[in-house]
Amino acid sequence: xxQYSIAVLAGDGIGPEIMQEADKVLSAVAERFGITLNRxxxxxxxxxxxxxxxxxxxxxxxxxxxxDAILFGSIxxxxxxxxxxxxxxxxxxxxxxxxxxxxxxxxxxxRIYPGLESLSPLREDIAKSGVxxxxxxxxxxxxxxxQPKGREGQGDEEFAFDTMRYSRREIQRIAVxxxxxxxxxxxxxxxxxxxxxxxxxxxxxxxxxxVANDYPDVSLEHIYIDNATMQVMKNPAQFDVLLCxxxxxxxxxxxxxxxxxxxxxxxxxxxxxxxxxxxxxAGGSAPDIxxxxxxxxxxxxxxxxxxxxxSLNQTAPADAIEQAVIATLEAGVVTxxxxxxxxxxRAASTSEVGDEVVRQLQRHAK
Length: 366
Ligand code: NAD
Ligand code: IPM
Ligand code: MN
What we know:
The protein is α/β, with parallel strands linked by helices. It is 41% helix and 18% strand.
């Protein structure tokens, strides 16, 4: 029997609420497919600062190292916003984990499912045009990690600086990830940059063009980030794979999430060259709705499906979860943020959505 160990890092805000639903779904899928998914929880983020003195305790890091995959919730919130940057949950825990495990390849799939166009805020004809975009985001370099980074000087002369830096090798490996993904999809890579202004973008274009030569069956186009954000609204069906640097991918993935209806629908996989990964919703800890039982658990549940697919090689259970999620949305069991004001009365809670996904999983069991 297949056995896996999963480090579960629920984190802050809505993190624990939505993780509980992913946990239910993993139990159901494990039972249905006869696999063992041993899950062990570890403290992370603001919760870990409050209870263990740091955002990423050593026991958590060791737990992640010993696991087959990391399932991550979300971290951060107003309580920890005033800490120095290097102690904040975002940098001290999440960026450290990404860097420690070299999770350079971040996949964020955004899709408007046929029949579910009404969830999208896009105009009906645009929502119905066949929207299926994969954001492939470079995750361990660029302006997030470039050195130097800091503040100097005083008074009006004080200044702050970040460094945007990319090596040929770093661009090459994320470009390869994008082309490989496009080969299994519609065969089109659109590389997002700001080559009219940035040196890093000029190198990005050069390297991407070179990688494209190895993939004659995949087409390559370049687009500036400002135009890209506009085109995602105007005509998202033109895109297949969007290849992005760290910061541009961060921005455009929130837009792609919203295009499908909610930040709470977009899962993500962050992988290294060995296939080890961290799986988390693209959205954050949502302090504005935390603690109310109304957060959408779908992105967390779909992140668990991506974990099964990409790190554990369990394709059938991953497919089953994705089908159960679509069936849940089709059944109209959705959280409040997916509904217009006039339909709020029929909003499901976080746990009702999780229960429905479990029910759909069991219903379709053979
Ligand atoms: P956010 O993604 O937490 O929230 C943005 C908006 O989307 C909010 O209105 C929120 O209610 C909504 N939203 C997000 N997830 C949702 C869900 N599952 N269901 C329904 N609505 C959802 O972004 P923010 O407010 O800018 O950031 C809040 C905190 O989260 C910050 O501390 C930020 O640094 C952190 N953050 C963490 C992660 C992560 O852990 N991976 C990702 C992004 C932001
Ligand atoms: C994301 C988040 C993170 C990022 C933050 C929390 C560091 O916004 O995963 O998109 O910017 O990468
Ligand atoms: Mn983000």
